[in-house]
Design a protein that fits this description.
With about 130 residues, the protein is an alpha+beta fold. The chain contains four helices and five strands; from the N terminus they run ααααβββββ. Strands 4-3-2-1-5 form a five-stranded antiparallel beta sheet.
Length: about 130
């Protein structure tokens, strides 16, 4: 019975995470009737893995992204660079980028403004020469 002695000594020692005892893997069983009720359809035509032409240029450029835009915005967030955003309607907004995601940029300039990326004509760092 040396195995019981080893097991008892192993259970009395506490690991670093504080768990005492043996761990048990619990795997839920999938009911057999659930497998029988599933219907699998066979496709006659093979699936073609290409981009849809109808999705437009904006969607295709999004898939071809090198993430350069995300890196640029993240750098401006970290360095708190004063940026100027020129919108499609000609409005100019200056401020610091707080955060950004795929569709919007949150700008802080005394107020907090969410700007949709689709409404931005161009942007630049304030103090740089721009035309």
């Amino acid at each position: 019975m040396p195995s019981n002695g080893n097991r008892a000594s192993a259970e009395t020692q506490q690991p670093e995470n504080g768990f005492v005892g043996t761990r048990k893997l619990i795997r839920p069983s999938l009911a057999q009737h659930a497998l029988r009720e599933r219907q699998f359809h066979q496709r006659n035509n093979p699936v073609v893995l290409t981009r849809s032409v109808s999705s437009g240029a904006a969607a295709s450029s999004e898939h071809d992204s090198s993430h350069a835009e995300a890196f640029y915005f993240q750098k401006q967030v970290q360095t708190q660079t004063l940026m100027a955003f020129v919108l499609e309607d000609g409005e100019r907004i200056e401020g610091y980028i707080e955060w950004h995601d795929r569709n919007v940029i949150k700008v802080r300039n005394g107020h907090r403004i969410l700007i949709y990326k689709t409404s931005i004509k161009y942007l630049y760092k304030v103090g740089e020469n721009h035309t």
